[in-house]
């Protein structure tokens, strides 16, 4: 700005080249100011910062060009100092763009991003908390859908790479925060223990204060599943609340105050102290959101400076000085001409388009997937190699390719990868086996692939993995069976392959997630008494009662399976002898609506035509919560509660007659 004061008020006649340079510089300043002014609370922070950085880079180059031209003016009018020039050289160095570009390249190669890279990107774009990251993922998903609608494959491909980047950030934070206690006790938004858990219509549970704030921001999607929500009804989850309270008491843990958390700044864990004082002067423009979701900028970026510079550039429009021609053209450039659009924050910078580093960018620009197909076919050939190292590398690469991008899954299946992966389920190498079953699980998430997988002879190999694989392989094999078990024909094949016995064992010794998935698979498979008896003989009821431990986070799934088994005489005895009845009564009293419904259904089956079971349930104090359930439960829960109370009343009358 000091360099421009004298030339602006002078009568010197500038060259046309200098005038054009000032016009260009003025335009970039105006565009930058428009970008700051166009910020919206739910804009994508990543794409916004990339756009700002791209414009700042252009402004830097334009400024340096102006400095060179100013050197030809009389020395008494202007004398650019080397310090000033060096300062301008620091503007818009595209550090964020470069870092993200490298991250997307590594992502494409299957290289795991380090925490330092994730922290650097999050810090650079102002993603300061898990909630910020989840919002960014939702916004990017919407932008990707918009791009798909207009068949802008380049932008869609670039954005889906960014979506996966935000997922990695969330997973990293969750891993840190949830390492000391059951993950089901944590709110997916706050990543802290819940004190007032509520369930949204998608079935996910959140801390009330955080999900209410989420809805207040106009985000009508489930933060975890990104499923659109038609209403904001919040149902208290008393089961989870009781389990958390019990766990906290047992472990001497004081849960945090959600109201304090929601009003406090919760930075990305490694951001604290991650930059030295020397680093701060090189910091990039960061849009930082406060609680009211208005954009504020840190001290290194002052939007008012853009306005000051613009005023200097456009001072005295009628003067014969350097900017006399700039004003009219710059003002014209600001006005939006008919049919034109003002640049938006989500526009991909040209530098990013040129790199071609985003997933499948080259293939998508041409509307095909040729480069992807070439890569996949090469990996399929490596699967058939006699080298175990080549097979390990190929399965690992295919696992990454199938992980998050539905379009890639379709291409991979079309190339014939499914048959090759099924063969690898019999591999003696546990790593190859685990990677192969995970690939098939990922591919099965795409409905168009389910039929191909089912007809590939996959069920016996999946059961083989359930029996012989490592724990990761067993659990992913179970999840694949769950994914494929919607079709009755597939369920029949699973039963013929002998899936029930290893699924019951996994329900006894798997991780909480593995136990849940095994229980779900058994619910889908054990629809007849013959299969139910197999579950019971394998110790399934004992494992299900163990899963009703509040600290396990598996209660509701266990109740569903118990309700399914309860009509078999052997199951009734096992539930009674294993101490399952008092646990079912607890769920009726404190459980979620779904949990109460299934617990009441299980008790109803146990008590039907059995005075002995009725007396046991009454002694466990079931009558008060059942009465409450007839008033506030779901329709099915009310029916089951009323039926139980009728059984109890009939038993009472029978006892009175006998006496």
N- to C-terminal separation? 103 Å
List the total number of helices.
Answer: 36
Number of strands: 5
Strand content: under 5%
Contiguous uncertain segments of 5+ residues: 267-303, 312-369
Helical percentage: 55-70%
Give the overall shape.
Answer: globular
- Taking all Cα atoms into account, the compactness measure Rg is 32 Å
**Rounded mean pLDDT score:** 77
In terms of quaternary structure, the protein is single chain
Give me the secondary-structure category.
mainly alpha
Sequence of strands across the biggest β-sheet: 2-1-3
Largest sheet: 3 strands, antiparallel
Question: Care to describe what's here?
Answer:
Residues 180-254 form the U-box domain. One of its GO terms (cellular component) is nucleus. It is an enzyme of class 2 (transferase). The structure is a single chain. The protein contains 36 helices and five strands. Among the domains are: 14-93, no CATH class; 180-257, Herpes Virus-1 (2-Layer Sandwich). Helix 2 (16-37) packs antiparallel against helix 13 (303-314). The chain is mainly α and 659 residues long. It has a three-stranded antiparallel beta sheet with strand order 2-1-3. A two-stranded antiparallel sheet has the order 4-5. Strand 1 (197-199) and strand 2 form a beta hairpin. The N and C termini lie far apart (103 Å).
């Amino acid at each position: 700005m000091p360099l421009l004061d004298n030339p602006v008020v002078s009568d010197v006649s500038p060259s046309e080249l200098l005038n054009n340079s000032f016009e260009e510089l003025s335009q970039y300043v105006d565009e930058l100011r428009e970008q700051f002014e166009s910020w919206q609370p739910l804009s994508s922070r990543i794409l916004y910062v990339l756009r700002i950085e791209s414009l700042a880079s252009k402004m830097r180059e334009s400024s340096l060009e102006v400095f060179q031209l100013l050197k030809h003016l009389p020395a008494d009018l202007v004398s650019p100092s080397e310090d000033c020039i060096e300062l301008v050289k620091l503007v818009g160095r595209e550090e964020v763009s470069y870092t993200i570009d490298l991250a997307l390249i590594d992502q494409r190669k299957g290289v795991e991003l380090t925490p330092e890279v994730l922290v650097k990107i999050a810090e650079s774009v102002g993603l300061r908390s898990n909630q910020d990251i989840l919002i960014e993922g939702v916004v990017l998903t919407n932008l990707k859908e918009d791009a798909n609608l207009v068949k802008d494959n380049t932008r869609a491909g670039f954005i889906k790479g960014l979506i996966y980047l935000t997922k990695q950030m969330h997973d990293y934070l969750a891993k840190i925060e949830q390492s000391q206690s059951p993950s089901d006790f944590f709110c997916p938004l706050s990543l802290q223990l819940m004190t007032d858990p509520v369930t949204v219509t998608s079935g996910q549970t959140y801390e009330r204060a955080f999900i209410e704030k989420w809805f207040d921001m106009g985000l009508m999607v489930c933060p975890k599943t990104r499923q659109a929500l038609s209403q904001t009804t919040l149902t208290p989850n008393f089961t989870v609340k009781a389990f958390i309270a019990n766990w906290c008491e047992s472990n001497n843990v004081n849960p945090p105050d959600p109201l304090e958390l929601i009003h406090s700044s919760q930075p990305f864990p490694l951001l604290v102290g991650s930059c030295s004082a020397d680093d701060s002067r090189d910091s990039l423009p960061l849009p930082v959101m406060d609680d009211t979701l208005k954009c504020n900028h840190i001290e290194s970026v002052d939007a008012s400076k853009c306005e000051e510079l613009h005023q200097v550039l456009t001072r005295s429009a009628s003067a014969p000085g350097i900017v006399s021609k700039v004003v009219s053209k710059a003002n014209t450039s600001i006005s939006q001409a008919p049919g034109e659009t003002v640049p938006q924050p989500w526009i991909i910078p040209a530098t990013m388009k040129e790199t071609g580093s985003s997933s499948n960018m080259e293939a998508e620009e041409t509307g095909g997937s040729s480069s992807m197909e070439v890569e996949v076919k090469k990996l399929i050939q490596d699967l058939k190699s006699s080298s175990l190292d080549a097979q390990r590398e190929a399965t690992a690469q295919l696992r990454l390719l199938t992980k998050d991008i539905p379009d890639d899954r379709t291409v991979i299946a079309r190339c014939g990868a499914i048959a090759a992966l099924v063969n690898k389920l019999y591999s003696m190498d546990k790593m190859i086996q685990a990677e192969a079953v995970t690939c098939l699980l990922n591919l099965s998430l795409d409905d168009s692939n389910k039929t191909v997988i089912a007809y590939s002879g996959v069920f016996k190999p999946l059961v083989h993995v359930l029996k012989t694989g490592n724990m990761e392989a067993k659990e992913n094999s179970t999840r694949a069976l769950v994914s494929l078990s919607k079709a009755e024909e597939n369920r029949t094949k699973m039963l013929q392959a002998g899936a029930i016995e290893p699924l019951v064992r996994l329900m006894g010794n798997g991780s909480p997630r593995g136990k849940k998935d095994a229980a779900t698979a058994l619910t889908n498979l054990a629809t007849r008494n013959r299969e139910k008896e197999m579950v019971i003989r394998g110790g399934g009821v004992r494992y299900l009662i163990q899963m009703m431990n509040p600290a396990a986070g598996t209660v509701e799934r266990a109740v569903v399976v118990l309700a399914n088994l309860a009509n078999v005489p052997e199951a009734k005895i096992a539930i009674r002898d294993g101490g399952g009845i008092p646990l079912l009564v607890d769920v009726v009293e404190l459980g979620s609506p779904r949990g109460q419904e299934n617990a009441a259904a299980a008790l109803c089956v146990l008590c039907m035509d059995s005075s002995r079971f009725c007396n046991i349930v009454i002694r466990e104090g079931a009558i008060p919560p059942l009465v409450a359930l007839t008033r506030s439960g779901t329709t099915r829960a009310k029916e089951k509660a009323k039926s139980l109370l009728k059984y109890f009343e009939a038993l009472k009358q029978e006892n009175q007659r006998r006496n």
